[in-house]
Amino acid sequence: MEISTIEIVNSSKEKPMIVINNFIYHKNQDRKNGNIYCRCQYCSSKYQCPASVTTEGLNTQIVCFSIKQHVDYPFKEDIDIKVLNKEDKMRKRSRSEQIPIRQIYRSEMYNLIVETQDIENIPKLPKEKNEIDLTNPRFTSKSYSKPFLLFDTNDKDRITAFASDIQLEILAKSARWHIDGKFKSCPNLYKQLYIIHARLNEEMFAFNFLKEVCFKKRPNIATKNYNERL
Ligand SMILES: [Zn+2]
Protein backbone atom coordinates (compact mmCIF):
# COMPACT_ATOMS: atom_id res chain seq x y z
CA MET A 1 0.00 0.00 0.00
CA GLU A 2 1.32 3.43 -0.89
CA ILE A 3 1.29 5.57 2.24
CA SER A 4 0.33 9.21 1.83
CA THR A 5 -0.53 9.99 5.47
CA ILE A 6 0.19 8.14 8.70
CA GLU A 7 -0.29 9.25 12.29
CA ILE A 8 -1.22 8.08 15.78
CA VAL A 9 -4.60 9.39 16.96
CA ASN A 10 -6.33 8.68 20.26
CA SER A 11 -9.82 7.17 20.29
CA SER A 12 -12.66 8.58 22.39
CA LYS A 13 -11.55 6.12 25.09
CA GLU A 14 -8.01 7.47 24.75
CA LYS A 15 -6.65 4.31 23.18
CA PRO A 16 -4.03 5.02 20.51
CA MET A 17 -5.06 4.15 16.96
CA ILE A 18 -2.94 4.13 13.81
CA VAL A 19 -4.43 6.13 10.96
CA ILE A 20 -3.00 5.32 7.53
CA ASN A 21 -4.46 7.07 4.47
CA ASN A 22 -7.54 7.79 6.64
CA PHE A 23 -8.05 4.08 7.41
CA ILE A 24 -8.18 3.59 11.18
CA TYR A 25 -6.58 0.57 12.85
CA HIS A 26 -7.00 -0.52 16.49
CA LYS A 27 -4.35 -2.45 18.39
CA ASN A 28 -5.31 -6.13 18.48
CA GLN A 29 -2.29 -8.02 19.80
CA ASP A 30 1.26 -7.58 21.15
CA ARG A 31 3.62 -9.93 19.29
CA LYS A 32 6.43 -11.67 21.18
CA ASN A 33 9.06 -9.76 19.19
CA GLY A 34 7.59 -6.42 20.28
CA ASN A 35 5.64 -5.79 17.11
CA ILE A 36 2.02 -4.74 17.35
CA TYR A 37 -0.74 -6.28 15.26
CA CYS A 38 -3.56 -3.86 14.47
CA ARG A 39 -6.87 -4.54 12.76
CA CYS A 40 -9.14 -2.25 10.77
CA GLN A 41 -11.68 -0.48 12.97
CA TYR A 42 -14.46 -2.19 11.00
CA CYS A 43 -13.13 -5.73 11.63
CA SER A 44 -15.95 -6.72 13.96
CA SER A 45 -18.68 -4.47 12.61
CA LYS A 46 -21.24 -5.52 10.02
CA TYR A 47 -18.55 -4.88 7.39
CA GLN A 48 -16.20 -7.59 8.79
CA CYS A 49 -13.20 -5.87 7.21
CA PRO A 50 -10.19 -8.25 7.09
CA ALA A 51 -7.49 -5.59 6.59
CA SER A 52 -4.70 -5.32 9.16
CA VAL A 53 -1.27 -3.82 9.66
CA THR A 54 1.72 -4.75 11.82
CA THR A 55 3.94 -2.03 13.28
CA GLU A 56 7.27 -2.10 15.11
CA GLY A 57 5.62 -0.76 18.26
CA LEU A 58 3.05 1.82 19.13
CA ASN A 59 4.44 4.03 16.39
CA THR A 60 4.26 4.65 12.67
CA GLN A 61 7.02 2.22 11.65
CA ILE A 62 5.20 -0.26 9.40
CA VAL A 63 6.38 -3.88 9.30
CA CYS A 64 3.75 -5.16 6.86
CA PHE A 65 0.17 -4.90 5.69
CA SER A 66 -2.24 -7.80 5.34
CA ILE A 67 -2.77 -9.18 1.85
CA LYS A 68 -6.50 -8.78 2.29
CA GLN A 69 -7.75 -5.31 1.41
CA HIS A 70 -10.34 -3.12 3.09
CA VAL A 71 -13.92 -3.92 2.22
CA ASP A 72 -16.29 -1.27 0.90
CA TYR A 73 -17.57 0.95 3.71
CA PRO A 74 -18.03 4.69 4.24
CA PHE A 75 -14.59 6.16 3.74
CA LYS A 76 -13.18 8.48 6.39
CA GLU A 77 -12.38 11.91 5.05
CA ASP A 78 -9.64 14.29 6.19
CA ILE A 79 -12.11 16.18 8.34
CA ASP A 80 -13.08 12.99 10.23
CA ILE A 81 -9.47 12.53 11.31
CA LYS A 82 -9.14 16.22 12.19
CA VAL A 83 -12.25 15.91 14.39
CA LEU A 84 -10.72 12.91 16.19
CA ASN A 85 -7.57 14.94 16.85
CA LYS A 86 -9.56 17.92 18.09
CA GLU A 87 -11.64 15.76 20.44
CA ASP A 88 -8.47 14.32 21.92
CA LYS A 89 -6.98 17.79 22.33
CA MET A 90 -10.15 19.01 24.06
CA ARG A 91 -10.04 16.13 26.54
CA LYS A 92 -6.40 16.87 27.37
CA ARG A 93 -6.95 20.62 27.66
CA SER A 94 -10.00 20.18 29.91
CA ARG A 95 -7.84 18.22 32.36
CA SER A 96 -4.85 20.56 32.36
CA GLU A 97 -6.34 24.05 31.95
CA GLN A 98 -8.31 26.03 34.51
CA ILE A 99 -10.82 27.51 32.09
CA PRO A 100 -14.43 26.45 31.41
CA ILE A 101 -14.80 23.37 29.19
CA ARG A 102 -17.27 25.32 27.07
CA GLN A 103 -14.52 27.85 26.27
CA ILE A 104 -12.07 25.09 25.35
CA TYR A 105 -14.68 23.48 23.11
CA ARG A 106 -15.43 26.73 21.32
CA SER A 107 -11.78 27.61 20.74
CA GLU A 108 -11.00 24.15 19.33
CA MET A 109 -14.12 24.24 17.15
CA TYR A 110 -13.02 27.63 15.85
CA ASN A 111 -9.59 26.18 15.01
CA LEU A 112 -11.25 23.27 13.24
CA ILE A 113 -13.41 25.60 11.16
CA VAL A 114 -10.36 27.65 10.16
CA GLU A 115 -8.40 24.52 9.24
CA THR A 116 -11.24 23.03 7.20
CA GLN A 117 -12.62 26.12 5.48
CA ASP A 118 -11.17 25.09 2.14
CA ILE A 119 -12.46 21.53 2.24
CA GLU A 120 -15.23 20.88 -0.27
CA ASN A 121 -18.68 19.80 0.92
CA ILE A 122 -18.18 21.39 4.33
CA PRO A 123 -20.65 24.26 4.66
CA LYS A 124 -19.40 27.59 5.96
CA LEU A 125 -20.23 28.49 9.55
CA PRO A 126 -23.77 29.96 9.42
CA LYS A 127 -24.22 33.55 10.52
CA GLU A 128 -28.02 33.53 10.27
CA LYS A 129 -30.47 30.83 11.27
CA ASN A 130 -31.68 30.38 7.68
CA GLU A 131 -28.11 29.52 6.67
CA ILE A 132 -28.16 26.41 8.86
CA ASP A 133 -27.97 23.67 6.25
CA LEU A 134 -28.97 20.19 7.37
CA THR A 135 -29.06 18.63 3.90
CA ASN A 136 -25.52 17.28 4.26
CA PRO A 137 -25.72 13.66 5.57
CA ARG A 138 -22.72 14.44 7.79
CA PHE A 139 -25.01 16.53 10.01
CA THR A 140 -28.09 14.33 9.96
CA SER A 141 -26.83 10.80 10.51
CA LYS A 142 -24.50 8.84 12.74
CA SER A 143 -21.60 7.16 10.97
CA TYR A 144 -23.19 8.24 7.67
CA SER A 145 -25.77 5.47 7.81
CA LYS A 146 -27.87 5.64 10.96
CA PRO A 147 -30.36 8.52 10.99
CA PHE A 148 -29.86 11.07 13.76
CA LEU A 149 -31.89 14.09 12.66
CA LEU A 150 -35.41 13.58 13.98
CA PHE A 151 -37.01 16.67 12.48
CA ASP A 152 -36.23 20.24 11.55
CA THR A 153 -39.13 22.67 11.33
CA ASN A 154 -36.97 25.18 9.37
CA ASP A 155 -39.48 27.97 9.97
CA LYS A 156 -39.51 31.25 11.89
CA ASP A 157 -39.56 29.49 15.28
CA ARG A 158 -37.14 26.85 14.13
CA ILE A 159 -36.92 23.69 16.20
CA THR A 160 -34.36 21.04 15.34
CA ALA A 161 -34.39 17.66 17.06
CA PHE A 162 -31.80 14.91 17.04
CA ALA A 163 -32.26 11.32 18.20
CA SER A 164 -31.03 7.94 17.04
CA ASP A 165 -33.34 4.93 16.64
CA ILE A 166 -31.86 3.35 19.78
CA GLN A 167 -32.49 6.53 21.76
CA LEU A 168 -36.13 6.56 20.64
CA GLU A 169 -36.45 2.92 21.65
CA ILE A 170 -35.12 3.70 25.14
CA LEU A 171 -37.45 6.67 25.35
CA ALA A 172 -40.46 4.51 24.43
CA LYS A 173 -39.59 1.86 27.03
CA SER A 174 -38.85 4.28 29.85
CA ALA A 175 -41.62 4.96 32.36
CA ARG A 176 -39.99 8.16 33.59
CA TRP A 177 -38.64 11.15 31.69
CA HIS A 178 -36.73 14.14 33.02
CA ILE A 179 -36.89 17.19 30.81
CA ASP A 180 -34.50 20.10 31.05
CA GLY A 181 -33.98 23.26 29.04
CA LYS A 182 -30.58 24.95 29.03
CA PHE A 183 -29.64 28.37 27.75
CA LYS A 184 -25.93 28.76 28.53
CA SER A 185 -24.76 25.58 26.82
CA CYS A 186 -26.83 26.22 23.72
CA PRO A 187 -25.00 26.64 20.38
CA ASN A 188 -24.97 30.12 18.86
CA LEU A 189 -28.01 31.11 16.73
CA TYR A 190 -30.22 28.87 18.83
CA LYS A 191 -31.71 30.15 22.05
CA GLN A 192 -32.22 26.97 24.01
CA LEU A 193 -30.86 23.46 24.23
CA TYR A 194 -33.57 21.09 25.32
CA ILE A 195 -32.72 17.64 26.67
CA ILE A 196 -34.85 14.66 27.62
CA HIS A 197 -33.37 12.19 30.10
CA ALA A 198 -34.97 8.76 30.34
CA ARG A 199 -34.56 6.28 33.16
CA LEU A 200 -34.41 2.64 32.12
CA ASN A 201 -33.07 -0.42 33.98
CA GLU A 202 -31.72 1.74 36.82
CA GLU A 203 -29.68 3.80 34.36
CA MET A 204 -30.23 7.34 33.20
CA PHE A 205 -29.82 8.07 29.48
CA ALA A 206 -29.49 11.62 28.20
CA PHE A 207 -30.70 12.21 24.68
CA ASN A 208 -33.13 13.93 22.35
CA PHE A 209 -31.54 17.27 21.89
CA LEU A 210 -33.89 19.92 20.68
CA LYS A 211 -32.63 23.36 19.89
CA GLU A 212 -34.82 26.20 18.94
CA VAL A 213 -33.97 29.55 17.49
CA CYS A 214 -36.79 31.82 18.48
CA PHE A 215 -37.66 30.76 21.99
CA LYS A 216 -39.09 33.71 23.90
CA LYS A 217 -39.17 33.67 27.67
CA ARG A 218 -42.79 34.79 27.91
CA PRO A 219 -44.85 32.22 29.87
CA ASN A 220 -47.57 31.77 27.24
CA ILE A 221 -45.05 31.23 24.43
CA ALA A 222 -42.95 28.98 26.64
CA THR A 223 -45.93 26.77 27.44
CA LYS A 224 -46.88 26.59 23.77
CA ASN A 225 -43.36 25.60 22.75
CA TYR A 226 -43.00 23.04 25.52
CA ASN A 227 -46.27 21.46 24.44
CA GLU A 228 -45.19 21.44 20.80
CA ARG A 229 -42.04 19.55 21.69
CA LEU A 230 -43.87 16.95 23.71
ZN1 LIG B 1 -11.08 -1.81 6.71
Automatic annotation (TrEMBL):
Keyword Zinc: yes
Pfam families named among the record's database cross-references: FLYWCH
Residue span(s) of domain FLYWCH-type: 9-70
Name of this chain's protein: FLYWCH-type domain-containing protein
Molecular-function annotations in GO: zinc ion binding
Entry keywords, A to Z: Metal-binding, Zinc, Zinc-finger
